[in-house]
Amino acid sequence: MASIVNISLLFDSFCVLDCWRSRHCDSRRTVVLHGLGGIGKTQLAIAYAKRHKDNYSAIFWLNIKDEDSLKQSFVKVARQILREHPSARWLSSVNMENLDEVIDAVKAWQGLPHNTRWLMIYDNFYDNPRLASNKDPTVVDITKYIPEVYQGSMLETTRSSEVEIGCYSRSSPVSGEDYCYAPF
Hints:
This protein is α/β, with parallel strands linked by helices. 34% of the residues lie in helices and 18% in strands.
């Protein structure tokens, strides 16, 4: 019985993601996949990326297990941009050892005019969110890693019930963005 429920949730979530992807707007689109660990959020994100790879100019995967993993993910993203987008050869002048410079360069690439078809997948987004009550020193302040432009798309997986953006199967504009919250 549990596998039937998971398949149903997976199907419903694909419907949400397909609807989200098909929306034509100039703002950034964000989907948050929320649920318990092991329920299939990451697998859904992988399946979505594979299914719709031709609809995006670039798909990037960021691991937010901890801050070091996230910063290393940005280095991989920068290298992927260099490989897949020859017009971004200016990125080759970025010192890949200077992680803050790499992050700024990736965000600059995301903000280029007419560069609206990229997808950033933030896996384990805010699984351990920074809150006033959370004294955990391993908490990652994700805000400096989120694109500053309102274009492109973001898909986030999280266990945290503290991420409250929109509601299931409905997109609503929030601060110039379209958010969709798909709880599992």
